[in-house]
Amino acid sequence: MNTKKIILFASGSGSNFEEICKHFEDKKQFSIDLLICNNSKARALNKAKAYGIKTLLINKESFYKTSSTLDKILKITPDLIVLAGFLWKIPTKIIDKFPNKIINIHPALLPDYGGKGMYGMNIHKAVIENNETKSGITIHFVNKNYDEGKILFQKAINLEGTESSESLSRKILKLEHKFFPKIIEKALNNG
Ligand code: GAR
């Protein structure tokens, strides 16, 4: 059997990372080979340990000025690279080697609320301040421009008048957990 290999980038609380690990745990045709993380305090690192997944801690110097991260990725030759709560821009040298093989999840309905500075709670606060009636999630390919790659999947939810950025954040995370692992599997099967 040809195992499909996944590399994940996650630097936050790692809740999506954990859902992805759970989803693929018993699916022997897929393997999560590495978690790449830029924050030594990220909860994703402990979660990776619990699942027996190797980790690589990176810093800005090594990530942008050397090819050490790319070299590690190339050794694994992943079928898909998944950004699950990773906020640094992916260097062109990595994007060029993996066209249509890097996907990201964004907690809003792109192209709205995308671009630099638009991540996590910043997005939910802006959505509430602008009295939007909808928000949602977007899963998209990563290209050289922040949040502008081809969209693979979106799911919208209606917002209530009483919505706060905190309640919206909880709803969005729930949506992400429900759909992201399935869309990753679909992308792997189509790739
Ligand atoms: C998720 O909501 C994800 O969409 C967002 O970070 C959160 C990570 O949560 N990503 C971005 O904002 C990317 N621009 P998690 O660490 O609990 O999975």
Characterise this structure:
With 191 residues, this protein is an alpha/beta fold. The protein has a single domain (4-190), classed as Rossmann fold (3-Layer(aba) Sandwich). Helices cover 40% and strands 22% of the residues. The protein is built from seven helices and seven strands, in the order βαβαβααβαβαββα. It has helices spanning 15-25, 43-50, 60-65, 68-76, 92-97, 120-129, 165-190; strands at residues 4-9, 30-37, 55-57, 80-83, 102-106, 134-141, 151-158. The protein has a seven-stranded mixed beta sheet, sandwiched between helices. α6 (120-129) packs across α7 (165-190). The chain is globular and about 50 Å long. The mean pLDDT is 96. The site of glycinamide ribonucleotide has 17 residues, from α1, β5 and α7.
